[in-house]
Amino acid sequence: MTSIKKKIFENFIDANPKSLLRKKNVIDEFEKTHLENKIDIKGDYSLILNLGKLNKDKIFYIIRRTPGAGMFSNVLFVLNHIKIAKKYNFIPVVDMKNFVSIYNDDSISLKESNSWKYYFEQISKYDLEEVYKSHKVIVTGNNFYNFFNYNLEDKSLKKLFDENVLFKKYLKRYIVSFENKFFKNDRVLGVHFRGTSYKTSAGHPLVATKNQMFHLTNKILKNENLDKIFLVTEEKSHLEFFLKKFGKKIVYLKSSFRSNKNNAFTTYPRNKHRYKMGSEIITETVLLSKCDSFLFVDTNVSSAVIALDQNKNQKRFKIDNGFNSKNIFYALIKWYLKKYLPYFLGGFKKEPKLIFLKN
């Protein structure tokens, strides 16, 4: 990539496309690469660049999300842009090499530097080197827009998911190996027990307390005649609590990073940490989808579990504890207040409402 193109990317990564167009020095660089025009896709100002002589009959659509968020938030973002690309007959390509995500890992020994391809196959047959030498390249905006579909369980997105989000073979092999070792001949309850930052996330579903989750898990184990619990949690104290309460019934991915703080992407306790964060949540999500029953609060992970639909007979139990405040300041304390207050003063119920979802 030439120094001019590098400069474009350096300026483009964290800029809002609308404000970027007002920066004269950046516009000058775009003009040097023969900027032809810009298109407006429902308010998302994407840029069409002429970057080379290849593929003059094609328009490539670079999907960027930097730094992005959790794995399945990124997947959701990519799927919404694939939908746009298909509508306009563009060729979509995910670039998490030049536009890095939170999963890009400088310590990784693999040759691949596009973090999307750590875990998934590229969504088209074209590699980035060829794309950036092509005649017309659209670089997308970097935000979720209000016209995006936020639900991975939606039929149209699920179809795009099945067709485009293809896991790497090494991940599929590991998942099958884990399933054969720990799930075989047992009926398993998958539990996604969110904690840490989700307790204080404005506008998000309120997660269960430890005692709530214990009572719900115990109830479902007995009612559904289940043998084991596959526990997925990012909070260390949640794992310790479940091990104390359920002992040998607990199965979990031992390698997964857990902490009692929201520091998963601000600390580096192991080699290839960011890369491993991605591979672990994908593995856990697919395994949750294979369980006989599934207990959860609404998250992008739970939506992915349902979209993957690896067990057609899975019974699903959604926890309804209400929602956190949309006020970012009150959201920081609302969960803690409800945890410690008695129910008659606005605290949580001993057992939150469970919504049974048919597969």
Please give a structural write-up:
This protein is an alpha/beta fold. 38% of the residues lie in helices and 14% in strands. It contains 13 helices and eleven strands. The chain has a six-stranded mixed sheet with strand order 8-7-6-9-10-11, sandwiched between helices. A five-stranded mixed sheet has the order 1-2-5-3-4, covered by helices on one side. The longest helix has 18 residues. The N terminus is likely disordered.
CATH architecture of the largest domain: 3-Layer(aba) Sandwich
Radius of gyration: 22 Å
| Total number of helices | 13
Largest sheet: 6 strands, mixed
Estimate the mean pLDDT confidence.
86
Give the CATH topology of the largest domain. Rossmann fold
Q: What is the total tally of β strands? A: 11
Q: What is the percentage of strand-forming residues?
A: 5-15%
- The termini sit apart by 48 Å
CATH class of the largest domain: Alpha Beta
Shape from CA axes? Answer: globular
Overall tally of domains? 2
Strand order of the largest sheet: 8-7-6-9-10-11
Name the helicity range: 25-40%
SSE topology string:
HHHEEEHEHHEHHEHEHEHEHEHE
Low-confidence stretches: 1-45
Structural class: alpha/beta
Concise account of the structure shown:
This protein has 359 residues and is α/β, with parallel strands linked by helices. It contains 13 helices and eleven strands.
Features:
359 residues, Rossmann fold, 2 domains, 6-stranded mixed β-sheet, 5-stranded mixed β-sheet, 13 helices, 11 strands, globular
